Amino acid sequence: MIFFEKVVTFLKKAILNFYLSKGVDMNIITILKADHKEVAALLKKLLKSETAQSKESIFSKIYEALNLHARFEEKVFYPAVRKTAKTKDLVLESYVEHDMIKILLADIRKMSIKDELWKAKVTVLQEIIKHHVKEEEQELFPQAKRILDKDQLKDMGEKYLRSKEGKDLK
């Protein structure tokens, strides 16, 4: 299983590098939406999973993905789009939602999978993320497209992809 995960990680990096080398428009909004879909699928898989080992493996992926995603949004994306009264309010709400998600992630990470509250906390995490994604995709992202030009969106996308490859956010 570990070998398979390493192969998948390698292939993801290779695919991202391929797209970047070909000049494919990998703007930040497209990439963040893809992250949203990936985490939603992982959460579904986690809640259906039956073995402790698979739950731990899936949760670890969710934990890492959400931490990287949130760190990038908070350090790069949100400050760039927080320029109007409407986006400022949406960004402030997003920071609070991120805080709630981080608290739940930390709680779940410390818990035993056998704990009777484990599944309930994962379900609440899933619900908060669904709400957060809906607001971002329906309200914040359309505003971001008005505030940021195509080059800014593409540059952010490339920066985020590089951070996903393990290179620091700068």
Your description of this structure?
The chain has helices spanning 2-21, 28-48, 52-81, 85-110, 118-147, 150-164. With 170 residues, the protein is mainly alpha-helical. The chain has a single domain (27-164), classed as nmb1532 protein domain like (Four Helix Bundle (Hemerythrin (Met), subunit A), Up-down Bundle), CATH 1.20.120.520. Helix 2 runs antiparallel to helix 3 (52-81), helix 2 (28-48) runs antiparallel to helix 5 (118-147) and helix 4 runs antiparallel to helix 5. It is globular. The mean pLDDT is 89.
Largest beta-sheet characterization? none
Q: Give the beta-strand count.
A: 0
N- to C-terminal distance: 33 Å
Task: Domain count, please report it.
Answer: 1
CATH architecture: Up-down Bundle
CATH topology: Four Helix Bundle (Hemerythrin (Met), subunit A)
Mean pLDDT: 89
Please bin the fraction of helical residues: over 70%
Structural class estimated from helices and strands: mainly alpha
Number of helices: 6
SSE arrangement:
Elements: H1 2-21, H2 28-48, H3 52-81, H4 85-110, H5 118-147, H6 150-164
